[in-house]
Design brief:
Among the domains are: 124-423, Pectate Lyase C-like; 477-549. Helices cover 9% and strands 30% of the residues. A twelve-stranded parallel sheet has the order 1-2-5-8-11-14-17-21-25-29-33-39, with no helix packed on it. Bound molecules: calcium ion (3 copies). One calcium ion (CA) binds next to loops.
Length: 552
């Protein structure tokens, strides 16, 4: 007699009667005050442990179910180990409460929460996860470059409003073909707890987020700090990863690495025959500070975009704030180890306390020809460089470079043909990386269609400020009219249109409806190239009167 199925049967019958649909998702409840023997998983009689509820032998949870963890103050800790999602589930704290899944560090090779490929589509929401000998959260994969090239990893996963901390090694580990993972509004900290005090940095491996060939990962609005090695990296051929609006602080190695150094077996060489570590990665509007090595490092990265980041007090032990590294890929003869190529590095605010501002590596460990940290141009401009301890150092170790031992910004400009519009000089930011009132970085960047907001999700106004923060200036007449238009006519102008300029027009573009709203300062026009070509709808002043009357 499977007593536990009673809840699903009752719920399903009720659902069928009400909706005529066969599928019914059950919400299961667990509570530290519940009982695995007397409970039935209802709100009134919750189970006690996730281990019991998720045990596949009991056949309780099914894909689409929600598991809600009670977490009243004083009774909110679940001492679990090897929590494993095998079907797509939502795992969350009960509303108004906060549940902590606590796993032992000592259980050898233990993982606190594992998400299987068969659990793709799962969501972890409002949860704290701590411990795990290896990882706090682990995305498992069935992909294998030798035996199962069709396999996939745990994909379409959302981790949101979570705390993941005090993990043995990496806080979050993402394995190949675990694609489309979103990590947002999470705090990730204190990795590497498995290492005894005094362990040399080279012997540690404990990132905040370690993504090996998981494409389209989105990490945003998160705070990653006190990380044993690198804050986060995505490597092994990860494509189209976006890292935005995060703060990353106090890391032993790097802040953000675009690519890194991966064993050749983890690459999909059908897609990526040259073994790029990262393809089209985007890093924007982040604050990175207090890192031992690179603030933002690029390794075998193709088409990386690094824009409007604020990088403070990085590379105190080596590398540089912006660093072009090389990758060894296990020294395997067949591996590609390509140089970084075609980066776009703009509007970054670099404030160093002795560490280099930028550096391009060349290494001859593998062959006499050497490995190049960069092929072609560095794509750098409109950045701000400042070193509180004197002139900032710029280095290029590639053969023939006069900057092997480093040089000034002027020498870097002259030799690399980059950073022509970049600025230098005294500048400071707040502890969390915001510009001070009247900062010289205000309006000194270049306008980029890739950057329409800042780290606070505030719109970029006028010319972009340099760094992650935009200081909200007074709204222009055009801004006020467009804000009003978005508020009153959202069917035509859905909020957060992408701002830009063309010819003498400043515009906002609404991609979902394919419409432009623009003004030359005198007239207001709409344009979509179909019904409306530069259709004049009235004077800016008349719309401004309407906007003002509506409080804009
Ligand atoms: Ca790792
Ligand atoms: Ca501005
Ligand atoms: Ca701001």
């Amino acid at each position: 007699m499977k007593y536990f199925n009673f809840r699903r049967i009752v719920c399903t019958l009720a659902w069928l009667a009400a909706s005529g649909q066969a599928a019914y998702a059950v919400e299961w409840f667990v509570s530290p005050l519940g009982s695995d023997t007397a409970g039935n998983g209802s709100l009134a009689a919750p189970y006690k442990t996730l281990g019991y509820l998720l045990n596949p032998g009991r056949d309780l949870v099914q894909g689409g179910d929600t598991v809600t963890l009670r977490g009243p103050t004083g009774n909110n800790v679940y001492n679990e180990s090897e929590v494993r999602l095998r079907v797509p589930l939502t795992l969350r704290s009960f509303e108004g409460e906060w549940a902590i899944i606590s796993c032992p560090i000592a259980l050898q090779d233990g993982v606190c929460v594992q998400i299987d490929p068969s659990a793709s589509g799962s969501r972890l929401s409002r949860l704290e996860i701590t411990g795990g000998n290896l990882y706090g959260v682990f995305m498992q994969t069935d992909w294998d470059s030798r035996d199962n090239r069709q396999g996939l990893g745990a994909s379409n996963i959302i981790l949101e409003d979570c705390k993941i901390h005090d993990t043995g090694r990496d806080a979050i580990k993402i394995t190949p073909k675990s694609n489309d993972i979103t990590i947002r509004r999470c705090e990730i900290y204190n990795t590497g707890r498995v290492y005894p005090e005094g362990t040399p940095l080279d012997d540690k491996n404990a990132e905040g987020i370690d993504n090996v060939n998981g494409s389209r990962m989105l990490v945003e609005d998160s705070y990653i700090h006190d990380i044993a090695t690198t804050g986060l990296y995505f490597k092994g051929g990860a494509e189209d990863v976006v890292i935005q609006r995060n703060r990353i602080e106090r890391t032993g190695v790097g802040g953000i690495m675009v690519g890194f150094d991966t064993s050749p077996d983890f690459f999909d060489t059908a897609l990526n025959p040259r073994y790029y570590e990262s393809i089209r990665g985007t890093v924007r509007n982040n604050v990175v500070r207090d890192t031992g090595y690179a603030g933002i490092g690029l390794y075998a990265a193709k088409d990386a975009v690094v824009v409007n980041n604020t990088v403070v007090n990085t590379a105190t032990a080596g590398h540089a704030a912006i660093y072009f590294g090389v990758t060894l890929q296990d020294f395997e003869p067949f591996a590609g180890r390509p140089a970084n190529i075609n980066p776009l590095i703009r509007n970054n605010l670099i404030i160093q306390n002795g560490g280099d501002c930028a550096r391009i590596r060349w290494a001859n460990e593998i062959s006499e020809a050497g490995l190049y940290g960069l092929e072609g141009g560095a794509g750098m401009d409109s950045n701000w460089f400042y070193n509180t301890r004197g002139a900032c150092n710029f280095a290029d170790n590639r053969p023939g470079s006069p900057l092997a031992d480093g040089g000034t910004l002027e020498q870097w400009r002259a030799y690399e043909k980059v950073d022509a519009s970049s600025l230098s000089g005294v500048i400071s930011v707040t502890a969390d990386g915001h510009l001070l009132p009247g900062s010289p970085a205000i309006d000194k960047g270049e306008t980029l269609s890739l950057v329409t907001q800042d780290i606070d999700k505030q719109p970029r106004r006028g010319a972009n400020d340099i760094g992650a923060d935009e200081v909200p200036g007074p709204a222009t007449s055009a801004d006020r009219v467009m804000d009003w238009a978005e508020a009153t006519l959202p069917q035509y102008f859905p909020p957060n249109g992408v701002a830009g300029t063309v010819a003498n027009y400043s515009y906002r573009y609404y991609a979902s409806v394919g419409l432009y709203l623009a003004t030359d300062g005198l007239r207001v026009i709409v344009h979509n190239g179909r019904e409306w070509n530069l259709l004049d709808v009235g004077s800016l002043s008349s719309f401004l009167a309407l906007a003002a009357a509506a409080g804009f």
